[in-house]
Amino acid sequence: MRKPVLIGNWKMNGSLQANQALMVRLLPRLRMFRKSMDLAVCPPLPYLFQVRDLLGYTGIALGAQNASAFVSGAYTGEVSATMLQEMGCRYVLVGHSERRTLYGETNQDVAARFRAVMSVGLTPVLCVGESLEEREADQTSTVVANQIQAVIDEVGLSSLAKGVVAYEPVWAIGTGRTATPEQVSMVHQDIRSFVGRNASEASQDISDALRIIYGGSVKPENAFDLFGLADVDGGLIGGASLHSEDFGAIAGALAEASGLLTDECETN
Ligand code: PGA
Protein backbone atom coordinates (compact mmCIF):
# COMPACT_ATOMS: atom_id res chain seq x y z
CA MET A 1 0.00 0.00 0.00
CA ARG A 2 1.25 3.48 -0.85
CA LYS A 3 1.54 5.81 2.13
CA PRO A 4 -0.41 9.04 1.53
CA VAL A 5 1.56 12.26 1.37
CA LEU A 6 0.40 15.82 1.91
CA ILE A 7 2.65 18.78 1.22
CA GLY A 8 1.99 22.48 1.79
CA ASN A 9 3.65 24.82 -0.71
CA TRP A 10 3.74 28.29 0.82
CA LYS A 11 5.20 29.81 -2.36
CA MET A 12 6.48 33.38 -1.73
CA ASN A 13 4.28 34.03 1.27
CA GLY A 14 4.87 34.50 4.98
CA SER A 15 6.81 36.53 7.53
CA LEU A 16 8.46 35.61 10.82
CA GLN A 17 5.31 36.59 12.65
CA ALA A 18 2.82 35.02 10.24
CA ASN A 19 4.76 31.74 10.08
CA GLN A 20 4.85 31.47 13.85
CA ALA A 21 1.11 32.13 14.10
CA LEU A 22 0.33 29.65 11.33
CA MET A 23 2.45 26.87 12.82
CA VAL A 24 1.07 27.34 16.33
CA ARG A 25 -2.42 26.78 14.98
CA LEU A 26 -1.50 24.14 12.41
CA LEU A 27 0.60 21.71 14.41
CA PRO A 28 -2.15 20.55 16.79
CA ARG A 29 -4.42 19.99 13.78
CA LEU A 30 -1.85 17.78 12.03
CA ARG A 31 -0.62 15.86 15.06
CA MET A 32 -3.22 13.13 14.78
CA PHE A 33 -2.28 12.34 11.17
CA ARG A 34 1.47 12.24 11.47
CA LYS A 35 1.77 8.46 11.66
CA SER A 36 -0.68 7.59 8.92
CA MET A 37 0.65 9.93 6.24
CA ASP A 38 3.79 11.81 5.27
CA LEU A 39 3.29 15.50 5.99
CA ALA A 40 5.50 18.40 4.96
CA VAL A 41 5.52 22.16 4.60
CA CYS A 42 7.68 24.09 2.12
CA PRO A 43 8.28 27.66 3.31
CA PRO A 44 10.36 30.25 1.42
CA LEU A 45 14.11 29.74 1.89
CA PRO A 46 14.78 32.49 4.47
CA TYR A 47 12.31 30.84 6.84
CA LEU A 48 13.66 27.29 6.71
CA PHE A 49 15.48 27.67 10.01
CA GLN A 50 12.50 29.19 11.75
CA VAL A 51 10.06 26.58 10.49
CA ARG A 52 12.49 23.75 11.21
CA ASP A 53 12.58 24.87 14.84
CA LEU A 54 8.82 25.21 15.00
CA LEU A 55 8.39 21.71 13.56
CA GLY A 56 10.79 20.29 16.14
CA TYR A 57 10.09 16.60 16.70
CA THR A 58 6.51 16.63 15.47
CA GLY A 59 7.33 14.20 12.67
CA ILE A 60 6.15 16.77 10.12
CA ALA A 61 8.85 17.29 7.54
CA LEU A 62 10.44 20.40 6.13
CA GLY A 63 10.61 20.93 2.38
CA ALA A 64 11.96 23.49 -0.08
CA GLN A 65 10.40 24.83 -3.25
CA ASN A 66 13.33 24.28 -5.62
CA ALA A 67 17.02 23.35 -5.73
CA SER A 68 19.88 24.00 -8.10
CA ALA A 69 21.13 21.28 -10.41
CA PHE A 70 24.67 22.17 -9.30
CA VAL A 71 26.57 21.37 -6.14
CA SER A 72 28.23 24.78 -5.66
CA GLY A 73 29.78 27.61 -7.63
CA ALA A 74 28.95 30.80 -9.46
CA TYR A 75 25.15 30.45 -9.64
CA THR A 76 23.87 33.66 -8.07
CA GLY A 77 20.45 33.29 -6.52
CA GLU A 78 20.49 29.49 -6.53
CA VAL A 79 20.57 27.12 -3.56
CA SER A 80 22.05 23.62 -3.66
CA ALA A 81 20.40 20.43 -2.52
CA THR A 82 23.24 19.90 -0.04
CA MET A 83 22.46 23.26 1.58
CA LEU A 84 18.80 22.29 1.87
CA GLN A 85 19.74 18.97 3.38
CA GLU A 86 21.93 20.77 5.89
CA MET A 87 18.96 22.98 6.82
CA GLY A 88 16.93 19.88 7.65
CA CYS A 89 14.80 19.58 4.51
CA ARG A 90 13.46 16.19 3.54
CA TYR A 91 11.49 17.13 0.40
CA VAL A 92 12.25 19.47 -2.50
CA LEU A 93 9.73 20.48 -5.17
CA VAL A 94 11.16 20.44 -8.67
CA GLY A 95 9.55 21.65 -11.88
CA HIS A 96 6.68 23.52 -10.29
CA SER A 97 4.70 25.10 -13.12
CA GLU A 98 5.53 28.58 -11.81
CA ARG A 99 9.22 27.71 -12.24
CA ARG A 100 8.59 26.30 -15.70
CA THR A 101 6.42 29.13 -16.99
CA LEU A 102 7.79 32.22 -15.16
CA TYR A 103 11.46 31.23 -15.02
CA GLY A 104 11.80 29.13 -18.16
CA GLU A 105 12.86 25.85 -16.56
CA THR A 106 12.79 23.18 -19.25
CA ASN A 107 12.15 19.45 -18.84
CA GLN A 108 15.92 18.92 -18.96
CA ASP A 109 16.61 21.58 -16.28
CA VAL A 110 13.99 20.02 -14.07
CA ALA A 111 15.45 16.54 -14.58
CA ALA A 112 18.90 17.81 -13.60
CA ARG A 113 17.45 19.39 -10.44
CA PHE A 114 15.65 16.12 -9.67
CA ARG A 115 18.98 14.31 -9.94
CA ALA A 116 20.71 16.80 -7.63
CA VAL A 117 18.01 16.40 -4.98
CA MET A 118 18.10 12.59 -5.15
CA SER A 119 21.85 12.48 -5.00
CA VAL A 120 21.92 13.96 -1.48
CA GLY A 121 19.23 11.60 -0.24
CA LEU A 122 16.30 14.03 -0.25
CA THR A 123 12.94 13.26 -1.83
CA PRO A 124 12.21 15.21 -5.00
CA VAL A 125 8.59 16.04 -5.72
CA LEU A 126 8.37 16.24 -9.50
CA CYS A 127 5.59 18.60 -10.55
CA VAL A 128 4.03 17.95 -13.94
CA GLY A 129 0.97 19.26 -15.72
CA GLU A 130 -0.44 20.79 -18.85
CA SER A 131 -1.53 24.33 -19.67
CA LEU A 132 -5.08 25.12 -20.71
CA GLU A 133 -4.05 25.42 -24.37
CA GLU A 134 -2.36 22.03 -24.20
CA ARG A 135 -5.44 20.46 -22.63
CA GLU A 136 -7.71 22.00 -25.23
CA ALA A 137 -5.41 20.74 -27.97
CA ASP A 138 -5.69 17.22 -26.49
CA GLN A 139 -2.01 17.15 -25.59
CA THR A 140 -2.27 16.47 -21.86
CA SER A 141 -0.94 12.89 -22.01
CA THR A 142 1.96 13.78 -24.28
CA VAL A 143 3.01 16.84 -22.28
CA VAL A 144 2.93 14.97 -18.97
CA ALA A 145 4.64 11.90 -20.44
CA ASN A 146 7.46 14.09 -21.84
CA GLN A 147 7.93 15.79 -18.48
CA ILE A 148 8.26 12.40 -16.78
CA GLN A 149 10.36 10.81 -19.51
CA ALA A 150 12.97 13.58 -19.19
CA VAL A 151 13.48 12.55 -15.57
CA ILE A 152 13.58 8.84 -16.44
CA ASP A 153 16.22 9.61 -19.09
CA GLU A 154 18.27 11.50 -16.52
CA VAL A 155 18.06 9.24 -13.45
CA GLY A 156 16.35 6.00 -14.52
CA LEU A 157 13.00 4.55 -13.65
CA SER A 158 13.75 3.24 -10.18
CA SER A 159 15.08 6.63 -9.05
CA LEU A 160 11.93 8.31 -10.33
CA ALA A 161 9.91 6.11 -8.00
CA LYS A 162 11.98 7.17 -4.99
CA GLY A 163 10.49 10.58 -5.52
CA VAL A 164 6.88 11.69 -5.63
CA VAL A 165 5.06 12.86 -8.77
CA ALA A 166 2.64 15.77 -8.34
CA TYR A 167 0.12 16.23 -11.13
CA GLU A 168 -0.86 19.88 -11.20
CA PRO A 169 -2.80 21.11 -14.22
CA VAL A 170 -1.46 24.64 -14.76
CA TRP A 171 -4.97 26.02 -15.33
CA ALA A 172 -6.06 24.79 -11.89
CA ILE A 173 -3.23 26.33 -9.87
CA GLY A 174 -4.23 29.30 -7.76
CA THR A 175 -7.26 29.89 -9.98
CA GLY A 176 -9.94 28.35 -7.81
CA ARG A 177 -10.70 26.14 -10.78
CA THR A 178 -10.17 22.52 -9.75
CA ALA A 179 -9.89 19.67 -12.21
CA THR A 180 -12.89 17.35 -11.96
CA PRO A 181 -12.36 13.95 -10.32
CA GLU A 182 -12.75 12.37 -13.80
CA GLN A 183 -10.02 14.57 -15.29
CA VAL A 184 -7.70 13.91 -12.36
CA SER A 185 -8.39 10.20 -12.39
CA MET A 186 -7.62 9.95 -16.09
CA VAL A 187 -4.25 11.70 -15.88
CA HIS A 188 -3.17 9.82 -12.74
CA GLN A 189 -4.02 6.50 -14.41
CA ASP A 190 -2.20 7.65 -17.50
CA ILE A 191 0.94 8.48 -15.51
CA ARG A 192 0.86 5.13 -13.73
CA SER A 193 0.42 3.17 -16.92
CA PHE A 194 3.06 5.26 -18.75
CA VAL A 195 5.57 4.36 -16.02
CA GLY A 196 4.37 0.74 -16.01
CA ARG A 197 4.91 0.43 -19.77
CA ASN A 198 8.50 1.55 -19.49
CA ALA A 199 10.94 -0.92 -21.01
CA SER A 200 12.27 -2.34 -17.79
CA GLU A 201 11.38 -5.60 -16.08
CA ALA A 202 10.50 -4.00 -12.80
CA SER A 203 8.43 -1.25 -14.34
CA GLN A 204 5.11 -2.69 -13.17
CA ASP A 205 6.27 -2.89 -9.56
CA ILE A 206 7.74 0.58 -9.77
CA SER A 207 4.55 1.95 -11.22
CA ASP A 208 2.49 0.29 -8.46
CA ALA A 209 4.74 1.82 -5.79
CA LEU A 210 4.97 5.32 -7.28
CA ARG A 211 3.18 7.98 -5.24
CA ILE A 212 1.24 10.36 -7.46
CA ILE A 213 -0.36 13.32 -5.72
CA TYR A 214 -2.70 15.99 -7.04
CA GLY A 215 -2.38 19.76 -6.76
CA GLY A 216 -4.39 22.70 -8.04
CA SER A 217 -6.99 24.57 -5.96
CA VAL A 218 -7.47 21.73 -3.46
CA LYS A 219 -9.75 22.93 -0.67
CA PRO A 220 -11.55 21.27 2.23
CA GLU A 221 -14.71 21.13 0.05
CA ASN A 222 -13.19 19.13 -2.82
CA ALA A 223 -10.37 17.25 -1.07
CA PHE A 224 -12.32 14.13 -0.13
CA ASP A 225 -13.59 13.52 -3.68
CA LEU A 226 -10.12 13.98 -5.16
CA PHE A 227 -8.25 11.92 -2.56
CA GLY A 228 -10.79 9.11 -2.79
CA LEU A 229 -9.70 8.37 -6.38
CA ALA A 230 -7.80 5.11 -6.76
CA ASP A 231 -4.60 6.54 -8.22
CA VAL A 232 -4.40 9.68 -6.08
CA ASP A 233 -2.00 9.28 -3.16
CA GLY A 234 -2.26 12.71 -1.58
CA GLY A 235 -1.96 16.39 -2.38
CA LEU A 236 0.30 19.36 -3.02
CA ILE A 237 -1.52 22.30 -1.52
CA GLY A 238 -0.77 25.95 -2.25
CA GLY A 239 -3.18 28.65 -1.07
CA ALA A 240 -5.07 26.46 1.41
CA SER A 241 -1.84 25.44 3.15
CA LEU A 242 -1.55 29.00 4.49
CA HIS A 243 -4.72 28.55 6.52
CA SER A 244 -4.39 26.17 9.45
CA GLU A 245 -8.05 25.21 9.49
CA ASP A 246 -8.12 24.45 5.78
CA PHE A 247 -4.86 22.51 5.74
CA GLY A 248 -5.96 20.55 8.81
CA ALA A 249 -9.31 19.77 7.17
CA ILE A 250 -7.55 18.67 3.96
CA ALA A 251 -5.34 16.32 6.01
CA GLY A 252 -8.53 14.96 7.61
CA ALA A 253 -10.08 14.42 4.18
CA LEU A 254 -6.98 12.56 3.03
CA ALA A 255 -7.02 10.32 6.10
CA GLU A 256 -10.70 9.61 5.64
CA ALA A 257 -10.47 9.01 1.90
CA SER A 258 -7.53 6.64 2.43
CA GLY A 259 -9.47 4.70 5.09
CA LEU A 260 -6.97 5.81 7.73
CA LEU A 261 -9.29 7.50 10.15
CA THR A 262 -8.73 4.87 12.79
CA ASP A 263 -8.98 5.24 16.56
CA GLU A 264 -5.21 5.54 16.67
CA CYS A 265 -5.39 8.39 14.20
CA GLU A 266 -8.14 10.16 16.09
CA THR A 267 -6.61 9.96 19.52
CA ASN A 268 -2.94 10.36 18.72
P1 PGA B 1 -3.02 26.07 -5.21
O1 PGA B 1 -1.48 25.77 -5.59
O2 PGA B 1 -3.43 25.01 -4.22
O3 PGA B 1 -3.00 27.45 -4.61
O4 PGA B 1 -3.79 26.00 -6.47
C1 PGA B 1 -0.99 24.47 -5.75
C2 PGA B 1 0.48 24.52 -6.11
O5 PGA B 1 0.86 25.42 -6.86
O6 PGA B 1 1.29 23.69 -5.68
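^ 2-phosphoglycolic acid complex. The domain at 5-257 is CATH 3.20.20.70 (TIM Barrel). The two ends are 22 Å apart (CA to CA).
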